[in-house]
Amino acid sequence: MDEQLHERVRDVIASVPPGRVATYGDIAAIAGASTPRLVGRVLREDGHDLPWHRILRADGTPAPHLAHRQLELLRAEGVLADGQKVDLRAYRWRV
Q1: Residue 59 CB: number of other CB atoms within 10 A?
Q2: Residuewise pLDDT in 10s, the chain (95 residues)
């Protein structure tokens, strides 16, 4: 991944506002990435200072290894989940 794409992905993630969520695919589409996996890669390698908790899988669920902490952070912003799933129709960020 080139540096410009990396920075575009970071910028898009950073712009997801509190109380809203986006999917890895949403971020990839906006940033012009070829696959949502690149978004996950950026978050894994360079996402410590980003609102990573606002990025979910396409079905509205968090990654299993992050689920408890991610849902806790989202709840603090007013994003409620039904079990382990966030209602994307209610909370999805639209550009």
Answers
A1: 10
A2: 799 999 999 999 999 999 999 999 999 999 999 999 999 999 999 999 999 999 999 999 998 999 999 999 999 999 999 999 999 999 999 98
